[in-house]
Design brief:
- The complex is a heterodimer.
- Chain A is an all-alpha fold.
- Chain A has a single domain, classed as 3 helical TM bundles of succinate and fumarate reductases (Up-down Bundle), CATH 1.20.1300.
- Chain A is built from four helices and no strands.
- Chain B has one domain.
- Chain B has five helices and no strands.
- Chains A and B meet through α1, α2, α3 and α4 of A and α2, α3, α4 and α5 of B.
Chain lengths: 112, 117
């Protein structure tokens, strides 16, 4: 792998981690408070449906996840399984794109 | 896994590395499932409600607590790494950072469990 690509992936991994730290903190706080007294579909959807704020937040969350996860998987695949090169990179990229699409679907489902 | 990593397994930082990596892998497996469950709402509130009713069993709820711990542990472990890389490596600060990361993760899982059960 060329050095500039390695540097770009390293930076993308760390930048997405910084965004995710904030998103996960908000998500954890929301989950911890939301489960009090039981979790219902009505409660979840009342909070999120029609909310531009939650749609934006989860959009940012999913985007950061879709960048962070495949880069992490790529590192694990190389270090633990010895899977390197174009095919491993492509598989990780496909997983990232799948996460992005599934995440977008989930956001649409709970915020539309 | 390389022999070098196994030689370091006695160090706390090695276990922190292992927790970070394993939690990341498990979360990567969980995420598509999580998104697909939420996407059930596209078929209406009843579809999501039926899944939530199914999930109200001790085994699933215990798994949810474990997932909250994994998420919090990966987050706090990641913050520790960001601090090391961007804030400068301070060897003497590592035990406190590791304890803080583990404690915060345990706190989140416990708070979630106390509200859930």
């Amino acid at each position: 792998m060329s050095a500039p690509l390695a540097t770009r992936l390293w930076l993308a991994q760390r930048a997405s981690a910084a965004v995710l730290a904030l998103c996960v903190a908000v998500h954890l706080a929301t989950m911890i408070t939301a489960v009090r007294g039981g979790l219902s579909a009505t409660e979840i959807l009342n909070r999120t449906r029609g909310s531009l704020g939650w749609a934006t937040f989860y959009g940012l969350f999913v985007l950061a996840v879709s960048i962070h996860v495949p880069i992490g998987l790529r590192t694990v695949a190389a270090e633990w399984l010895g899977w390197r090169g174009g095919r491993a990179d492509a598989a990780c990229a496909v997983f990232g794109i799948a996460l992005l699409l599934l995440g977008a679907l989930a956001i649409a489902a709970v915020t539309r | 896994m390389t022999p070098t990593r196994w030689r370091n397994r006695g160090q706390t930082a090695y276990w922190a590395f292992l927790v970070h990596r394993v939690s990341g892998l498990l979360l990567a497996v969980f995420l598509p499932v999580h998104f697909l469950v939420l996407a059930r709402a596209l078929r209406g509130e009843a579809a999501l409600a039926s899944f939530l009713r199914w999930s109200q069993t001790p085994l699933v709820e215990a798994s949810e607590v474990a997932l909250v711990f994994l998420l919090a542990a990966h987050c706090t472990g990641g913050l520790r790494l960001l601090f090391i890389e961007w804030g400068g490596w301070r060897r003497e600060a590592q035990p406190a950072l590791l304890a803080l990361a583990g404690g915060a993760a345990a706190f989140c899982a416990l708070a979630f469990a106390l509200n859930l059960f």
